[in-house]
Structures are given as structure tokens and as C-alpha cells.
Design a protein that fits this description.
Helix content: under 10%
CATH architecture: Beta Barrel
Distance between the termini: 32 Å
Order of helices and strands: HEEEEEEEEEEEEEEE
Number of helices: 1
Shape: globular
Strand content: over 45%
Number of domains: 1
Radius of gyration: 19 Å
Structural class: mainly beta
Length: 260
């Protein structure tokens, strides 16, 4: 029931904001099948196949809303994890002294509520609710007309809502690279390394990941911009080992559809 109410709330927010912020909107739908679920910060959550699906609505002003769901690829699909995210993304041009000019700094602030279900193996509760605030700073550099490189720095603050604990922090830096191999095929390669203070799991430490994927443009998709992502491979590592975290590979395949 709680997950259904959250879903309805998110849909209502998207509908209302679509009316309030009249103008240009863009949308993105994504769905991935992966052989296991490891969280973005490297914690092993589910050791079997999962389906992870999200939909995002973005306004030209920079505001966006996102709904994302992850569930095991069996009869527990709706017991895994939901998140509803509302954030703001903008680009800031800046000049430092007279030595150089920075063309633009991409800044993304967001808040998120995560409803973590009973299938999560590290949960000792019937469910875990988390509230996140996040700030991401990045700058894209064009290496050549077919290649871009984007270094970034990310700071997350999270609170376990059904707990008397305080706030926890995660600091992460990395780089993303995208190469247009040829028309209709893009190669993505990236990685990050960060520090988690152990707020949730009680075991602070450094961890990171490396990801690579190929994105194939799909023809004849009702006028939408659709891409098949395959293969999608991520390697997670920890320095040193953290509780519920281990060096691990995740393999997946997915589809991403964008339209206006």
C-alpha cells in the first residue's frame, strides 16, 4: 500500500508540474535487466536477476522529476526498492581571474526519498526509508568532435528515517567518457572512487566502480529516440573491504527511449 501511494504521489507531482511549468518538456524511459543488484556506492543488495526501470520528466527550466523502481525478476518484483526524486539541474558559467575561462559548470542538486523493501538482504527491518540530498558538479570537455570527457564530483547526505541516527555522508569523484564510434553506435566508459562514512552499514571505507557500455540506436521506434544498451558491464571494488560489499561484476542489457 505504501509503495502504491508513493507511486501515485509521484505521478500527481509530474502531472501538476506539467501544468504549472507550461512549455517544453522532454521525457526519458529506461529499463534494464541485470544479473544482480549492487547499489551505486557498491553495496551488494540482491544476488539474483533484477529489472530496474525509471521514467524522468525534464523541463527546459532545469527542473525534473524522476520515478525509479528496482525489483527481482520473479514474483518479488514489487518488494525490492522504489525511489521518487525531485531535483534541479542547471549550468553555471564562471571566470576565475584572468588566467583562464571555464566554458560552463554543470550543477545538479536533488532530493530523493528511497523506500527500501524487505527483499534487501542487509535490512533488519520490514523496510528501510532513506532521505537523500545530493549535489553533483561536472564539466564536459570535447576532446574531438566524436569524443567528450566529463570529470565530476558528487556529495550525498542521507538520513535513515526510521532510526534515531544522525546524517551520513558519501563523497565521490570520477570521470565519464563518451565516444561516437560511428553513426548509431556510442561507447561509454567511466569510473569513480569515493568515501562512505559507514552511517548505514557501520563500516566506513573507500569504494569505487568502473563501467563500460555500448549504445546502439534503434530504428523505427514511433518517432522516438531509442537505444539498445548492450553490453552494460560494471566492476565494483572496495579499499579495504566494507561490510556487505565485495569486489563484484554486474552484467546487463537495457533500453533507453527519449522523446519530447
Amino acid at each position: 500500500m505504501k509503495k502504491a501511494l508513493i507511486t501515485i504521489m509521484v505521478l500527481m507531482i509530474l502531472i501538476i508540474t506539467n501544468k504549472v511549468f507550461a512549455g517544453d518538456w522532454s521525457y526519458e524511459f529506461e529499463s534494464f535487466l541485470k544479473d544482480k543488484y549492487v547499489s551505486p556506492d557498491g553495496f551488494s543488495i540482491h544476488d539474483d536477476w533484477v529489472i530496474q526501470t525509471g521514467i524522468t520528466a525534464r523541463h527546459v527550466s532545469g527542473w525534473y522529476g524522476k520515478f525509479w523502481h528496482s525489483g527481482s525478476a520473479d514474483n518479488h518484483f514489487f518488494d525490492m526498492e522504489n525511489s521518487a526524486e525531485l531535483g534541479f539541474a542547471t549550468e553555471t558559467n564562471y571566470i576565475i581571474g584572468k588566467a583562464f575561462q571555464a566554458g560552463g559548470l554543470d550543477v545538479n542538486f536533488s532530493v530523493a526519498f528511497w523506500d527500501l523493501g524487505p527483499q534487501l538482504k542487509y535490512s533488519g527491518e520490514d523496510s528501510i526509508d532513506l532521505f537523500f540530498t545530493n549535489a553533483n558538479f561536472s564539466k564536459a570537455f570535447e576532446i574531438n568532435p566524436r569524443q567528450t570527457m566529463t570529470p565530476f564530483f558528487n556529495v550525498s547526505n542521507y538520513t535513515l528515517l526510521n532510526s534515531s541516527k544522525g546524517n551520513g555522508w558519501d563523497f565521490r569523484a570520477g570521470v565519464l567518457q563518451n565516444i561516437n564510434v560511428y553513426e548509431g553506435l556510442d561507447w561509454s566508459l567511466g569510473g569513480d572512487c569515493g568515501y562512505d562514512d559507514g552511517y548505514i552499514f557501520g563500516s566506513p571505507g573507500f569504494n569505487g566502480k568502473v563501467n563500460t557500455s555500448l549504445s546502439w540506436k534503434l530504428p523505427l521506434c514511433f518517432g522516438k529516440n531509442a537505444n539498445l544498451v548492450f553490453p552494460d558491464v560494471t566492476y565494483f571494488f572496495s579499499l579495504p573491504d566494507i561490510k556487505d560489499q565485495k569486489d563484484d561484476w554486474v552484467f546487463g542489457i537495457g533500453i533507453v527511449i527519449k522523446w519530447k
